[in-house]
């Protein structure tokens, strides 16, 4: 019997399973900055406003001067932005703001509706500005789709990285963004999240297996959707099957699964959770349970833009920031050094 239920190729976005809606991996090798938070490089030949071609190894995305995603709305789900390298500047329609990166995660509940921007300021004018992040969308159950918007910062200082040695002293590291491993619990997600209930067994892990290393993915409860995505390294052995780079597997959730790296290290993302098992009706940035609710989301957004936009531009960056920070809707301020 194999624990592998399905193997699939990674596209853009990656294939996901309930309660997850969406996942993309951004790996941009941005050049030096131009002193105004954009790239010190010509933008000729790029489809500015819709730049996803990876020209020269990086994208502007929807930005025209600074790469990133200027103000846009969401309703009915949550975004989990896991930044391994580089920085993200957040601003939203409720006046909250932040700068985070280099191992931090922002977990934002859109709930009844919020606009936000996610810009990638290129701070260094002397060196290149690499950016690596996952953006993951996790659904909200019907009872929570219209909750008040909220975001939580899972700072790198508070996020456990668990070391798991094998019998040959190779050490796998697991960054626990959601869930728990060997007694190490991730920081709490927002209170209305599907992940806030331990019975839903939500896990988001970044797994690094060294060359020649072996890691046993522990069994979880039964009936979960559990997927592994290989995004770095050429291949990994999962049970008796070989998984190639840019491929994923859906696994039986209550089985222990053996991972074996070959001659080079590998990195994988784990997304796991109990299915919400409710109708999903999605139109762009709105995810609800019915067509009528989608129509209402558009009507509400046209009426008040989910609180308006209190910023002077659609793509604000925090030029005054001295480090990482989060200013929450209630005025609470968190500050961390770069």
Protein architecture, described:
InterPro entries: Pirin (IPR012093), Pirin_C_dom (IPR008778), Pirin_N_dom (IPR003829), RmlC-like_jellyroll (IPR014710), RmlC_Cupin_sf (IPR011051). Residues 204-307 form the Pirin C-terminal domain. Belongs to the pirin family. With 338 residues, this protein is mainly β. It has two domains: 1-11 and 159-278, Sandwich (Jelly Rolls), CATH 2.60.120.10; 20-43 and 68-157 and 293-314, Jelly Rolls (Sandwich). Helix content is 4%, strand content 43%. It has one helix spanning 291-304; strands at residues 4-9, 20-30, 68-74, 77-85, 87-92, 97-101, 105-109, 114-119, 129-139, 150-154, 161-165, 171-178, 180-181, 184-185, 203-209, 214-217, 225-232, 235-238, 241-244, 247-251, 257-261, 266-273, 281-283, 286-288, 324-327, 333-336. The strands form six sheets. The protein has a seven-stranded antiparallel beta sheet, with no helix packed on it. The protein has a six-stranded antiparallel beta sheet with strand order 3-8-5-6-25-26, with no helix packed on it. A hairpin with a 2-residue loop joins strand 23 (281-283) and strand 24. It starts with a strand and ends with a strand.
């Amino acid at each position: 019997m194999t624990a592998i239920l399905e193997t699939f190729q990674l596209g853009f976005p990656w294939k996901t399973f309930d309660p997850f809606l969406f996942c993309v991996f951004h790996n941009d090798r941005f050049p030096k900055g131009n002193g105004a938070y954009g790239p010190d490089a010509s933008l000729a030949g790029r489809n500015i406003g819709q730049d996803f071609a990876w020209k020269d190894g990086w994208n502007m995305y929807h930005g025209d001067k600074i790469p990133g995603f200027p103000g846009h709305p969401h309703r009915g789900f949550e975004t989990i932005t896991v930044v391994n390298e580089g920085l993200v500047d957040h601003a939203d329609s409720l006046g909250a703001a932040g700068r985070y990166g280099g191992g931090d995660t922002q977990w934002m509940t859109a709930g009844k509706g919020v606009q936000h921007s996610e810009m990638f300021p290129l701070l260094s004018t002397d060196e290149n500005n690499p950016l690596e992040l996952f953006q993951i969308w996790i659904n909200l159950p019907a009872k929570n789709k219209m909750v008040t918007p909220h975001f939580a910062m899972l700072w790198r200082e508070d996020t456990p990285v668990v070391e798991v040695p094998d019998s040959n002293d190779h050490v796998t590291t697991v960054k626990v963004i959601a869930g728990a491993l060997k007694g190490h619990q991730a920081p709490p997600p927002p209170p209305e999240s599907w992940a806030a209930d331990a019975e839903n067994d939500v896990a988001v892990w970044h797994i690094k297996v060294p060359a020649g290393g072996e890691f046993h993915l522990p069994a979880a409860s039964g009936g979960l959707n559990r997927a592994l995505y290989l995004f770095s390294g050429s291949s990994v052995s999962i049970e008796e099957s070989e998984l190639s780079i840019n491929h994923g597997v859906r696994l039986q959730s209550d089985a222990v699964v053996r991972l074996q790296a070959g001659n080079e290290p590998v990195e994988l993302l784990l997304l796991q959770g109990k299915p919400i098992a409710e109708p999903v009706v999605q139109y762009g940035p709105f995810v609800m349970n019915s067509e009528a609710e989608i129509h209402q989301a558009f009507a509400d957004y046209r009426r008040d833009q989910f609180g308006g936009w209190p910023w002077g531009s659609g793509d604000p960056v925090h030029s005054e920031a001295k480090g990482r920070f989060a200013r929450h809707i209630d005025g609470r301020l968190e500050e961390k050094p770069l």
